[in-house]
Amino acid sequence: MWLARAPNAHTRRPAILSEGSYAAAPIAVLSFAPQMTEPDAVRLDKWLWAARFFKTRSLATAAIELGRVRRAGERVKPAHAVRPGERYEIQQGDHRIDVVVLSLSAVRGPASSAHNLYRETADSALWRERRAELRRFGAEPAQEIRGRPTKRDGRRLRDLPSD
């Protein structure tokens, strides 16, 4: 039996033309690429991770459970279904960001595509700019205080001259 090979053996296979002779015939190529359709809803922890508010889903879940992510002022659960048009308040340290969901994604992509998932509200952007301006003039003195004073700090406080 004689077998004819196609130039690209991965996309073609031998087919029988007549008794004892073969020729190359195309193979049906299956695509396993993900569908590019937008889902109806995505879990909140997954969306926050995809929108790059948190580095891991575990951090996003922890923030949600601690009440640092709110929808319309109410606490939500990590499995809450996010839908376009909803407004969320996200607290990260001393920063608070108010965002409106524009589109959904369960896949973490580059920062440029993550920014297209939401829009920051005007009030939130103004508040953030004001905070940045205050930080530029000088740090708040209370931020330097870290917990309870040490023995050394206590001695220095006692040795300060009193008026």
Distance between the termini: 110 Å
Chain-averaged pLDDT: 82
Biggest sheet architecture: 5 strands, antiparallel
Tell me the Rg in angstroms.
Answer: 29 Å
Low-confidence blocks of residues: none
Q: What is the 3D form?
A: elongated
Q: Count the strands?
A: 9
Distinct helical segment count: 5
Which structural class is indicated by helix and strand composition?
Answer: alpha+beta
Q: SSE order, as H and E?
A: EEEHHEEEEEHEHH
The helical percent reads 25-40%
Beta-strand portion reads: 15-25%
- Which strand order spans the largest sheet, edge to edge or round the barrel? 5-4-7-8-9
Structure commentary:
The protein has 163 residues and is an alpha+beta fold. 28% of the residues lie in helices and 23% in strands. 13% of the residues are buried. The mean pLDDT is 82.
Primary descriptors:
163 residues; alpha+beta; five-stranded antiparallel beta sheet; two-stranded antiparallel ribbon; 9 strands
In short:
28% of the residues lie in helices and 23% in strands.
Secondary structure topology:
Layout: E1 12-18, E2 21-26, E3 42-43, H1 44-50, H2 57-65, E4 69-71, E5 74-75, E6 81-82, E7 87-92, E8 95-101, H3 111-115, E9 118-120, H4 122-137, H5 151-159
Antiparallel strand pairs: 1-2, 3-6, 4-5, 4-7, 7-8, 8-9
Helix pairs in contact: 1-2
